Amino acid sequence: MDEPAFAGLLTDKYELTMLAAALRDGTAERRTTFELFARRLPEGRRYGVVAGTGRLLEALPQFRFDDDACRLLAQFLDPGTVRFLRDFRFRGDIDGYAEGELYFPGSPVLTVRGSFAECVVLETLALSILNHDSAIASAAARMVSAADGRPLIEMGSRRTHERAAVAAARAAYIAGFAASSNLEAQRRYGVPAEGTAAHAFTMLHTDADGPDELAAFRAQVDALGVGTTLLVDTYDVSTGVANAVAAGGATLGAVRLDSGELGVLARQVRAQLDQLGATGTRIVVSGDLDEFSIAALRAEPVDSYGAGTAVVTGSGAPTAGMVYKLVEVDGVGVQKRSSHKESQGGHKQALRLSRPTGTITEEMVHPAGRPPSTGEPSRVLTTPLVRGGEVVTETGPAALTAARELVAAGLRSLPWEGLKLAHGEPAIPTVHIPA
């Protein structure tokens, strides 16, 4: 199914019924501030990674309501509200954490300012994008940390919605993955694409005498060159490695293992490759890998990893748990007081404190325009993204590169316990300075 030319209907009905009521009673034009944040991190997580900001900014000009949308809206909205939406353009301001920035409980990841009418209708769009992409990037960053410098390939397209797969590939790339199997992510975002063959290609080379794995490997090498990666576990791994070297020679690029006891097999395969003279042939492993199984393979002779299902499902945390709350009306702070769902009122910004060594120690969330005095090194986190409805930050390839660099720097800045995979508290505390 093609994506709609205008994305206005990518929202929940109650956003528009609230709008209709506000237009009717005259409150729609009150100046408001909404804040997108996570009350808490997913269970056991020590940090999150902001992702999806660029996609949200790209979607903003498309958040409009065409004739088809307005015909649908006329079924439950009054004519005045439909006219308002037909002419809708977001003309407010948005500030937020740069894409790739780490976040913690209470971090004001996104701040949307404008009339109630224009801010309220963005709620679902902002949450759906940032909740998904941040969940993927946060899980992917844990895998990057566990891989300890070895490259990872995102290959989870077949485990999620076809459109979500593109966003997931982008988010994983931001978090530090080297490439993705998804070609649309390459076309749209410039994410490097990698992939060679599946078991089906090996099994295709079967005749009346049975499987001919060597013929399959020779065909692949002939088509793709000796730098290709041959999948050696379709039948017997030891025979597969021997056939791979026979087909590609000592300069074969890589072999891939996709099943079994990967650590044990990797050691056996490394020894066999070395004995056959293929000392430069790399070993790629895949097969339901997550951050824990990647960490368990750290001491094994594995050169790179392919991760799929766990990446695109957030490795057990498929949403970042972010919320979008009204925090200010006409300059007056407002806050939700529901049990376990409290919010902090007022327009806020944030600083991150660190030691002179660069290790972060604390996040300080303060009233906007009133940063606290601190004797420690600090860095401003809140940056302008949109002014008067116009995007004022880079959203192209350079922004994606900057986001990758920001994630890498963020992971380096965490205290050592913040990189643990075991359950624990957030890596640093978030301190709220009241208005």
UniProtKB/TrEMBL annotation:
Residues 337-359 are annotated as: Disordered. Pathway: Cofactor biosynthesis; NAD(+) biosynthesis; nicotinate D-ribonucleotide from nicotinate: step 1/1. GO terms for cellular component: cytosol. One of its GO terms (biological process) is NAD+ biosynthetic process via the salvage pathway. Keywords: Glycosyltransferase, Ligase, Phosphoprotein, Pyridine nucleotide biosynthesis, Transferase. InterPro entries: Aldolase_TIM, NAPRTase_N, Nic_PRibTrfase-Fam, Nic_PRibTrfase_pncB, Nicotinate_pribotase-like_C. Residues 9-131 form the Nicotinate phosphoribosyltransferase N-terminal domain. Pfam families: NAPRTase_N. The keyword Ligase applies. It is an enzyme of class 6 (ligase). Transiently phosphorylated on a His residue during the reaction cycle. Phosphorylation strongly increases the affinity for substrates and increases the rate of nicotinate D-ribonucleotide production. Dephosphorylation regenerates the low-affinity form of the enzyme, leading to product release. Catalyzes the first step in the biosynthesis of NAD from nicotinic acid, the ATP-dependent synthesis of beta-nicotinate D-ribonucleotide from nicotinate and 5-phospho-D-ribose 1-phosphate. Belongs to the NAPRTase family. This is Nicotinate phosphoribosyltransferase. It comes from Mycobacterium sherrisii. The lineage of its organism: Bacteria, Bacillati, Actinomycetota, Actinomycetes, Mycobacteriales.
